[in-house]
Amino acid sequence: MKTILSLLLIFSFALNLHAQRPASTNYDESKVPEYTLPAVLTTSSGKKVRSAKVWEKSRRPEVLGLFAENIYGQMPLKYDRITYSIINEDRNSMNGKAHLKEVLIEVFNRNKSVKINLTLFIPNQKTGPAPVFLLINNRPKENTDPSRTVKSEFWPAEVLIEGGYAIAAFQVNDLAPDNKETFMNGALQLYPEQLNAENGMRAIGAWAWGASRVMDYFETDPQLDKKRVAVTGHSRGGKASLWAAANDQRFALCISNCSGNTGAALARRQFGERVKVINTVFPHWFNTNYKKYNDNEDQLPVDQHMLISLIAPRPVYATNASEDLWADPRGTFLSLKHAEEVYELYGLKSALPEVQPELNTPIIESPLAYHNREGKHDLTVYDWKQFIRFADSHYWGKKN
After folding, report:
1. 3-state class of 120 per DSSP?
2. Where residue 75 falls among pLDDT bands split at 50, 70, 90?
3. CATH of 47-393, one of 3.40.50.1220, 1.10.3720.10, 3.40.50.1820, 3.10.310.30
4. If you count DSSP H runs as helices and E runs as strands, how many of each does the chain have, helices first?
5. Whole-angstrom distance, CA of residue 186 vs CA of residue 91
6. Handedness of CA 345, 74, 119, 81 (dihedral sign)
7. Do 256 and 318 meet the contact criterion of CB atoms below 8 Å apart?
8. Most exposed of 28, 107, 117, 338 (fewest Cβ within 10 Å)?
9. DSSP character for 270?
10. What does the domain layout of the chain look like in residue ranges?
11. H/E element holding 83?
């Protein structure tokens, strides 16, 4: 029954999302306007950045500030205290292959609190602390069922455990309900001033903030390798994973699956979903300042290649699906390509080809990785298996 309910919810969401897509949406490459991307390695004063040291000291903080001011909102750093409680545990989950922990993370600030419910599986056969994949889950909680009664391709925990990885997830509604009327009923109760600020944090920012609070917990768990934590997300969760990794350098690897507009895809291409559509349909995702760029992408002081650049030198994997033109597969690939010059400052050579690779041809062994698989807007076992290969290529897996 739970499986049927989950499928119905996903189907309903897909129909609603499709209905919100305007008929005028551009899916024609010949209609992509000419555009000039902001120079990621030129400071606002016009100085060229030629070293990683100067990038980190001068340009990186500047770019991060531009994203916070104009798109994602401020990222509050202070809170009064945080607590962790194991509310359920099974050391022999998955027929003895995994150690299940259900962790309640509670963050307190100004006499209010927000509760984050974390589901975590750790491989029992791993010697030493396990590397971790953390999913920012934007689907119903049944997709990350701790009992494993429901086994969803969206979060194939058994596949990750078999690969030698811990796998964790929290649901976005714990931090900010994905609803324009109620999104403030979560982390934003701890920071009410954000709601009145033009550059204040909104839902995507709250989800990214929540990922960092989960990272706070990971640092306390001796079974986990805090130096090898990958943050990942699909669609709107993929937007949040990029913002989380940009802000929190404790995340050693970032994966963004089918994240599209204001995720990994370039805004200036005006292909698929555009800024005006996302701000109209989901006004609670990004800050008020972002509305200035509705039908006005060329005036943005940043574009999404610069968001990926903020994660350098840490590895980034972005993906697409062939039937998901809404998320602009080509624009995602180009965004990665335009981030290469920042990775080169660290002596990291991208293996991405000059042109977008064919379907089902992942580019894995690279600090900037990419694939475009056949199929729909979704997160699948195929995707997860490539993510494991990507982490393995950076010496994370059980064979390394």
Report:
1. strand
2. very high
3. 3.40.50.1820
4. 11, 9
5. 31
6. positive
7. yes
8. 28
9. -
10. 47-393
11. strand 81-92
The CA dihedral of 388, 390, 394, 396, to the nearest 10 degrees, is -10
| Dist CA 133 CA 245 (whole Å) | 13
Q: Strand 98-109 and strand 81-92: pairing? A: antiparallel
One-letter amino acid identity for 243?
Answer: W
358 by Cβ neighbours in 10 Å (0-12 / 13-18 / 19+) ranks as exposed
What digits encode the pLDDT tens for the residues 24-64?
A: 899 999 999 999 999 999 999 999 999 999 999 999 999 99
Dist CA 331 CA 344 (whole Å): 21
Nearest Cα residue to 64 out of 268, 240, 305, 310: 310
Residues designated catalytic: 235, 377
DSSP-derived secondary structure letter, 265: B
Q: pTM for the full model? A: 0.95
User: 348, 365 in Cβ contact below 8 A?
Assistant: no
Task: Tally the residues of the chain.
Answer: 400
Please, are residues 316 and 256 in contact by the beta-carbon 8 Å criterion?
A: yes
Could you tell me which of 215, 212, 265 has the C-alpha nearest to residue 372? 265
Query: Token pair of 302, please?
Result: 């940043």
pLDDT tier for residue 311 given thresholds of 50, 70 and 90: very high
Residue pair 137/144 in contact (Cβ under 8 Å)? The answer is: yes
Q: Look up residue 17 and give its two tokens.
A: 């999302």
Element (H, E) at 4: helix 2-19
Q: Which residues contact 77 (CB under 8 A, 6 or more apart)?
A: none
Tokens of 348: 């990291």
CA dihedral for 287, 291, 294, 296, sign (positive or negative): negative
**Residue owning tokens 């701890």:** 190
- As a whole number of Å, the CA-based R_g of the chain is 20
